[in-house]
UniProtKB/TrEMBL annotation:
GO terms for cellular component: membrane. Residues 326-335 have a biased composition (Acidic residues). It is found in: Membrane. Keywords: Membrane, Transmembrane, Transmembrane helix, Transport. It is a multi-pass membrane protein. Residues 307-319 have a biased composition (Polar residues). This is Bifunctional purine biosynthesis protein PurH. Its main location: membrane. InterPro entries: GLUT (IPR045263), MFS_dom (IPR020846), MFS_sugar_transport-like (IPR005828), MFS_trans_sf (IPR036259), Sugar/inositol_transpt (IPR003663), Sugar_transporter_CS (IPR005829). The chain crosses the membrane at residues 53-73, 107-127, 139-158, 164-185, 197-218, 224-247, 366-389, 401-424, 431-451, 457-481, 493-514, 520-543.
Length: 559
């Protein structure tokens, strides 16, 4: 090592180990003292890798989960009040100058409903950029804007177009929330309980759906539909009020070279001062590596140019943690050039975005798997089942009882999702996923059989079986795996693509289900059954078990 390189390393170690460093986080709004500042009272001999879910960790998770809860609420907010929105009740009381209803045909109502999915797709694709620019917590704070303006436009809508625009804006916020929330949960969770904490995301979504069913039933007359579509504003304001009590993701802070702050946040989340073993496996910040690269390139006359084989780079670039696109073209951020001697360094400092993640060989397999996980989830037909349930139940029961039974489907969805959260870290992701797919396949066969032979009781029971099979496994596990298969550099971009595939699948099933059903009848369920079998086979051979492993260990398996 040259004298210049030795001085650089010594300077970096002095800065990182300094006991007088003070960092201020614009997200936490608190001054974070040096690494030797007083940690929370805890067992000083307990490593953070052995920690469970502490109250600070759970509190931050619950606060963040209000965001996907709003997504769940907005999914079904137009289902229950459809009739009173489109048809005026002449005997109902009027509110001020607002129209009593917004008369529209089924086509226009479908456009207003599907505008949510269009906004969700755009929101999902932009979520990765937001998460990297403002942080996980910071991005969700900014994301409160569409969650405020969307419900406001719908609650005060004077035309169908205004209602559709409000749905589109709410969709934007929803798309962002379901990308960033599970990512945040995985990054703050202890390794042993990452699955349990991450499944809070799906649990929040189904609670949001149940909430909108409840509010919709209570406000299902006269002009009260405006309360139903505007209730999302209450949730958005609640989220803004409690946001200051959540911390930023320590992994994100570490990736932005805020090591002191990251360690202190991690100490708070784990309730122990010993976090060295946990952060030892975290990749070095790309900002730090880029800075070292710039310093090493300032060599004097006669000094050899620093290369990736130098000791300084070996100390700061995790081995096997680099990634490089297949071609040698310059990256958008200027991180690539044709100097092969710096290949390892430049590969590590490359920025991963939604536009280039599929160019990286180490991320391509994981990228394809999360796309299939989310797209296959929609091809399972679960949304078609939710849509079809009311018409099946209406053949046997009164309209009032149908409403109660439909709400019971929402309750079952919540209970089954909670059961998945309790066992995912005990039995693992693969057993939960495959048992869910297998049970869904059998339930779909029974549903198709019941509808085919005209046995309404079998059909009705099968609907509940499909929901009970989907909720604990195939519902939440794709969201969980989408955050575990990528390291911190690609997590945001990978999550954006995963949810984009989910939105596209949702849109395709919503548009194609009724026409295909009218064409081939109950054989439409054969398509869902085939999709379950094909996806299950692919997942069996290519998806690893991630229980109890760090994100870096999981990501290394795809190199």
């Amino acid at each position: 090592m040259s004298q210049t390189e030795h001085n650089i390393v010594a300077s970096r170690e002095h800065i990182l180990n300094s006991q007088t460093v003070v960092e201020e986080s614009p997200l936490l709004h608190t001054n974070t003292l040096a690494e030797n500042s007083s940690p929370p009272a805890a067992d000083p001999f307990k490593s953070s890798l052995e920690a469970g879910i502490t109250w600070p960790c759970l509190a931050s998770a619950v606060i963040i989960c209000i965001s996907p809860l709003q997504y769940g609420y907005h999914i079904a907010e137009l289902n229950t009040p459809k009739n009173i929105i489109t048809s005026c009740n002449k005997d109902a009381v009027h509110w001020s100058s607002l129209p009593l209803c917004l008369p529209m045909n089924d086509t226009m109502y479908s456009i207003a409903t599907s505008a949510f999915a269009v906004g969700g797709l755009l929101g999902s694709l932009s979520a990765g950029w937001m998460a990297e620019k403002w942080g996980r917590r910071g991005a969700l704070i900014y994301n409160s804007v569409p969650f405020i303006f969307g419900p406001l436009l719908m609650a005060f809508a004077i035309s169908p177009v205004m209602l559709a625009v409000g749905r589109f804006i709410s969709g934007l916020g929803s798309g962002v929330s379901v990308v960033i929330a599970p990512l945040y949960l995985s990054e703050i969770a202890p390794v042993k309980y990452r699955g349990t904490l991450n499944l809070l995301n799906q649990f929040s979504i189904v609670v949001g759906v149940l909430t909108t069913l409840t509010v919709g039933m209570l406000a299902n007359s006269g002009p009260y539909w405006r309360i139903s579509v505007g209730f999302g504003l209450v949730l958005a304001c609640l989220h803004l009020f409690v946001f200051p009590f959540a911390v930023e993701s320590p992994r994100y802070l570490w990736s932005r070279n805020k090591r002191v702050e990251a360690r202190n946040v991690l100490r708070k989340l784990r309730h122990t001062p010993d976090v060295d073993e946990e952060v030892a496996g975290w990749p070095t910040s790309t900002l730090t590596i880029s800075r070292d690269r710039a310093l090493l390139n300032r060599h004097g006359p006669g000094e050899p140019r620093a290369t990736a084989s130098n000791t300084v780079l070996q100390n700061n670039v995790p081995q096997g943690n680099g990634a490089k696109p297949d071609d040698d073209d310059n990256d958008d951020d200027g991180d690539y050039n044709n100097n092969n001697t710096e290949g390892g360094l430049l590969a590590t400092t490359a920025k991963v975005t939604v536009f280039n993640i599929f160019r990286f060989a180490r991320y391509r397999k994981a990228w394809l798997l999360v796309l299939l996980l989310q797209f296959g989830q929609q091809l399972s037909g679960i949304n078609a089942i939710f849509y079809y349930s009311s018409s099946v139940l209406a053949k046997m029961f009164s309209s009032q009882l149908v409403g109660i039974l439909t709400m019971m489907i929402g309750v079952l969805n919540v209970i089954a999702t909670a059961s998945g959260a309790l066992v995912v870290d005990r039995f693992g992701r693969r057993p939960l996923l495959f048992s869910s797919i297998a049970a869904m396949t059998v339930s779909m066969i029974l549903l198709g059989l019941g509808l085919g032979i005209g046995n309404n009781i079998l059909a009705a029971v099968s609907i509940y079986l499909v929901v009970a099979s989907f909720a604990p496994g195939y519902g939440p596990v794709p969201f969980l795996l989408g955050t575990e298969l990528f390291d911190v550099r690609a997590a945001s971009a990978g999550g954006s693509w995963a949810l984009a595939a989910n939105w596209i699948g949702t849109f395709i099933v919503a548009v194609a289900f009724l026409p295909i059903q009218n064409l081939i009848g109950v054989w439409v369920f054969a398509i869902f059954i085939s999709a379950l079998l094909v996806c299950g086979a692919v997942f069996y051979f290519f998806i690893p078990e991630t229980k109890g492993r760090t994100i870096e260990e999981i990501a290394a398996e795809f190199e």
